[in-house]
Structures are given as C-alpha cells and as structure tokens.
User: Which sequence fits this backbone?
C-alpha cells in the first residue's frame, strides 16, 4: 500500500517538521473578541522572540474561522481606519504586541459554535516556514 | 514716580490674569464643546426597523458614536469602554444612552443592528439610516466616513470618526471624547453631567 505509506510519511513529516514551533517564539495573552452572528472577530496576543533571528508573522489558520488576516487599526485626525498588512516582524529578542486599537488578527467566517469562555486553536505562520499553534481564549463583544 | 508704579500694577494684573487662565476652571476631564456643536437632531431607524428621533432620548445623557458592525477592533473596543464607563455610575447608568450609528447601512440591516446592540447590553442602541440621513447627521457634527473598495469577496473597510459626542439630558452638545479616553475619565464627566 504505497498510498498508505505516503500518508504516514506525510503525517510524520508534518508532526516532526512542519508543525515544529518556530525556535525561540512563544505566545502569551492570546484572546479573541467574538461579535454576534457571522461578524468578523479580532484576535490579540503577544509574541515573544527569544531567538537569534528576526521572524515575520505572515498569516494564521484556525478550524474556528474561515479566513484570518493581519490588520492594523489607526486613529488619525479623528478618523478611524483599518488596513490589511502582509507581515509583521518580531525582532530577535523583541516582542510583537497585537492589541486593541493596533495590530490584530481579523478572523472572518466564525463557525457557529464558538462560545465566550471556551478556547479555539489558531496556527500562526511565519516567514521561515515554521508554525506556532496557540490556544486563544474566546471573549464576548465587551472583551469579558 | 507714579509711572513705574502703574506699570507694576499692570504687570501684577496681567500675571494674575495669566495665572487664572493657566488654572482654567474647566471642571471637565474631556473636551468641552458646549456652544461649539449643535444640539442633537436626527431621524434614523433602530434594530426593530422603527424610526427614531433624537428627541426620543431626551432625559438621558447621550453618547453618540459612529461605526459599523464589520469593524472587529476599534468599534467594539470603544463601545466596551463606553459601556464600562456607564457601569461605573451604578443606578445612574439608567439615565445614559450609548447611540451606535452605523454608517454602513448596506450590511447593517435592522436585524444585524438588533443582534449587535444586544451583545453590548441594555445601555446601547444601534441605529442606522439612509445615506441621506447619515450624511445629514455626520455633517451636522463635522465628521466624515467613507466606504472602501470591495475586495474579490465583496468585503470592504469603512473609515469613520473616532469621536464620541456627549449630549446632556436636554440634547445640548457638551463634551467630546476620543477612543483613547479611559472609562474612568468618561465616567467622571458623565456623573457631573447627570448631577448638573
């Protein structure tokens, strides 16, 4: 069964290499603000890079949401805006902060069964091909 | 000999005036816009599809904020902060009203508005209107909004004012808060407005 062997080999590859956490990267304070219905949510966290190299966050995926994009909010001259960004750098020895009114994940197409108080897995993707699985706490619209 | 004395008096008076100006007696932590903006007037619809007028909210201190529901970050963050500010007032919170005016009526149907306001609790009323009604209201308070170009999936961003206009119980414009004013600072001024 070469097909089976292939699947097993692929799995092994995913487990041992593809899913290997980016060296020196860790996440903390990860949470998502859920809005009602199918409205897009916002995700926040801090990414700490204790590695020797700068790494760039390039995307994210989650079984709880259709698509996830990196966004930046800004408020200038009394006007609030949001724009998509392609990547966010985490310098060696530095921290990238995604927080309300700043950088955030925009998570569109929430699956219908997400509830505040529960957790949802999100896999962060980096420019060097590594991934970091992070468990996000779901909060309600008011962030509680 | 009297001339220098006069000059001294003039300097002393000027110094006293300057000191008075520097120690501005404004009791407000937020920006005072009394007399600078017109009273609250609008015709919009609510989450039940009913027409609502500004005078429906007379008797309540009104916090007016413009946004859109597909805004995952700044709008809910601001609304949560305003709700938190009203909660700090205790029972007096019942005399406040947070009006969230969606400038994106194409996506924000009454049903969407209804679900959205429920997510923020009883102090929030979500409203929207026709483009003409929204233009009239935003022009009245000299704020702008814009709908971005839709992407391949038809999604688009909306730019909107980050200001929160606060009106007293008679509908007179009194204070201006920005998104970054903390809930505590806003609560202090709301309390003063309710007491006044």
Assistant:
């Amino acid at each position: 069964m070469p097909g089976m062997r292939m699947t097993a080999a692929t799995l092994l590859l995913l487990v041992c290499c593809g899913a290997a956490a980016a060296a020196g990267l860790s996440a903390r304070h990860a949470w998502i603000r859920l809005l009602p219905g199918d409205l897009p949510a916002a995700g926040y966290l801090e990414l700490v890079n204790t590695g020797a190299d700068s790494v760039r966050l390039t995307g994210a995926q989650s079984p709880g949401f259709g698509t996830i994009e990196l966004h930046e909010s800004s408020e200038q001259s009394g006007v609030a805006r949001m724009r998509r960004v392609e990547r966010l750098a985490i310098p060696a020895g530095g921290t990238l902060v995604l927080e309300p009114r700043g950088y955030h994940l925009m998570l569109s197409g929430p699956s219908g069964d997400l509830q505040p108080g529960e957790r949802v897995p999100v896999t962060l993707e980096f420019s060097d091909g590594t991934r970091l699985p992070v468990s996000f706490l779901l909060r309600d619209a008011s962030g509680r | 000999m009297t001339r220098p004395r006069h000059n001294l008096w003039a300097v002393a008076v000027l110094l006293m005036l300057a000191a008075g100006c520097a120690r501005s007696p404004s009791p407000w932590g937020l920006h005072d816009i009394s007399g600078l903006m017109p009273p609250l007037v609008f015709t919009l619809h609510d989450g039940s599809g009913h027409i609502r007028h500004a005078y429906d909210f007379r008797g309540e201190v009104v916090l007016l904020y413009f946004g859109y529901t597909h805004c995952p970050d700044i709008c809910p963050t601001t609304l949560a902060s305003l709700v938190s500010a009203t909660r700090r007032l205790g029972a007096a919170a019942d005399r406040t009203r947070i009006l969230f005016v969606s400038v994106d009526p194409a996506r924000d149907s009454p049903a969407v508005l209804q679900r959205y306001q429920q997510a923020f609790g009883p102090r929030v009323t979500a409203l929207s209107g026709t483009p003409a009604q929204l233009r009239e209201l935003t022009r009245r308070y000299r704020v702008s909004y814009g709908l971005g170009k839709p992407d391949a999936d038809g999604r688009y961003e909306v730019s909107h004012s980050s200001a929160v206009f606060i009106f007293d119980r008679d509908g007179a414009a009194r204070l201006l808060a920005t998104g970054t004013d903390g809930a505590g600072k806003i609560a202090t001024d709301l309390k003063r407005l309710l007491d006044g």
